[in-house]
Fold this protein.
Amino acid sequence: MFALPARDLDHILNHTGDVWPELCGKKIFITGGTGFFGRWLLESFVWAVDRLRLGAELTVLTRCPEAFQAKAPHLALHPAIHLLRGDVRTIDVSEGQYSYIIHGATEASAKVNREQPFLMLDTIVQGTRRSLEYARNSGATRFLLLSSGAVYGAQPPEILRITEDSWGGPDTTDPRSTYAEGKRLAELTAVLFARTYGLKCPIARCFAFVGAHLPLDAHFAIGNFIGDCLNGRAIEIRGDGTPRRSYLYAADLATWLWTILIAGESCRAYNVGSEEDLSIAELARKCAEVMESREGFRIAQPVSVAAPERYVPDTSRARHDLGLRQRVSLEEAIRRTAAWHGWAAPVEAEARA
């Protein structure tokens, strides 16, 4: 896969000015660095290192360095990036010296959650424990845990945006809650480490996103919709189109994560996402309109009379505490994501952007 667009990387650099002086000359360790979140963090890190001459280094834990090098040689071969072969569940916690740890490794797959729930649970729970032990032994001072909005369980339909102090939770008798319960236990483990050993552990509860490297053929609705438009297909909505979601562009996501790593309060969770919600049907229509698809969309099921399911964060804590906000609109996010995959925007759309 090719590198991210310069304007996205400049966007991140321009809105993380207070972050990079803290990382100057430091060593960072990241798990989950080859996934969607990780690729944006690695790309923006290399961009900052080259332009600001930080002298910082980043080590990426990966089960297959050769595969990552084949996909992203510009990252794998960069002098500031080091690949460490290993599994987050079994990593030797006695190796390495680092100042900052970013833990994002997880099996974020609906298929794995459904078919291999123990693998899902072990990766999240054991992986977090090993990563925290690694941070403690390596001398790290800050540990950023990438968690999920799934920890809240089903969002009550009368609550438009869910806050970090919500007292909801997943159904512990439902095997589909494996991912969510794993993330809840990961958060608790991080807090226990922070209070026991003095490691600063801010938590990023991530919701839904869009951008380059998001799979177009997985369980992410917006990725599937963009993929349908790119391939000249009608957008297929398997449900009734009423669930409401919000989407933050990955350049904003990376800006928020770097900021929370450096400035986030220990043992404090921050919702990461957009507050601008829309229904799945409205999302399909927006993707078709932005990409000027003539095929439209189809909804498989009749509209339910029940209140629509919601998955939308309240991000006032991130705004008030850290000055973070959404800067790229959803329309522009769809446009940029499609362009990265080879879609040619009409001249008029480019002029508006």
About this structure: Residues 117-138 form the longest helix (22 residues). The mean pLDDT is 93.
